[in-house]
């Protein structure tokens, strides 16, 4: 499952890098994926929307067994 999640994150990365940010995979525990937003994304007031909207949606589409995505 970890490899599938990492592949899904690679699909999201260009969008975040285009805005001066990035995303780092931290871990997967059960059905919970933990990621860290970096660069411009780390302090952005819209970061929670990015996690839930773009990141979680994309990861869950690619890896249906994922329940949620959390930022750490």
Q: How large, in whole angstroms, is the Cα Rg?
A: 11 Å
Tell me what the CATH architecture is.
2-Layer Sandwich
**Overall spatial form:** globular
Ends apart, CA distance between termini: 19 Å
The count of domains is: 1
| Beta content | 25-35%
Full CATH superfamily name: Fe-S cluster assembly (FSCA)
Low-confidence stretches: none
Largest sheet: 3 strands, mixed
Describe the structure.
This protein has helices at 2-18, 47-62, and strands at 21-29, 32-39, 68-71. With 72 residues, it is of the alpha+beta class. The chain has one domain (2-71): 2-Layer Sandwich (GMP Synthetase, Chain A, domain 3), CATH 3.30.300.130. A 3-stranded mixed beta sheet has the order 1-2-3, covered by helices on one side. A hairpin with a 2-residue loop joins β1 (21-29) and β2. The model has no long low-confidence stretch (mean pLDDT 93).
Secondary structure layout:
Blueprint: H1 2-18, E1 21-29, E2 32-39, H2 47-62, E3 68-71
Helix pairs in contact: 1-2
